[in-house]
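Ticket 4471: requesting a sanity check on a complex prediction with 4-nitrophenyl phosphate. Repro inputs:
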Amino acid sequence: MVRILFVCLGNICRSPTAEGVFARRAEAAGLDFEADSAGTGDWHIGKAPDPRAASAAKARGYEIAHLRARQVSRDDFSAFDYVLAMDRMNLAELQRLAPTRFKGTLRLFLDFAPDAPLREVPDPYYGGDDGFAEVLDLIEAASDGLIAHAQTHTRKNPRPSPLPLRRTRS
Ligand code: 4NP
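Returned structure tokens:
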């Protein structure tokens, strides 16, 4: 099981998009994972994603409207193996917050998309709809890179169960 936290500033545009996109693609890839998102800021705690982010995501088949914003906390560094920042400003804030004992991975999300044209996911909040499509392009590429990375770097169950597990009827 790999546990991943996506972090931006408000947790209403980029990181909930990353959570929704990554979750759907990771499920399709059969990855054993847990994904969540949070913001370094506190302005939007409890809010739903920005409607522009939700509709841009929905246009590509990702449902994120049910997510609610929360602020990142020091406890997140115990709960997650990967803490991935959308930009350098949020990465710096996370580096300041991280306990020295954190042994997980704290990096820019786009490090997992080495061929992408940018190193940071641009903040789309004050821009137009094009910004949200660009955010999705970058996040889809980095999600696939992260899934491939997780599949090679997480230890597989050495003795998989010989039979597929079935859900018991109730
Ligand atoms: P996010 O976008 O960090 O991608 O969620 C933003 C949302 C809100 C604000 C800034 C960025 N804001 O300043 O309120």
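Notes from triage: The chain is about 35% helix and 15% strand. Leaving this open until the requester confirms.
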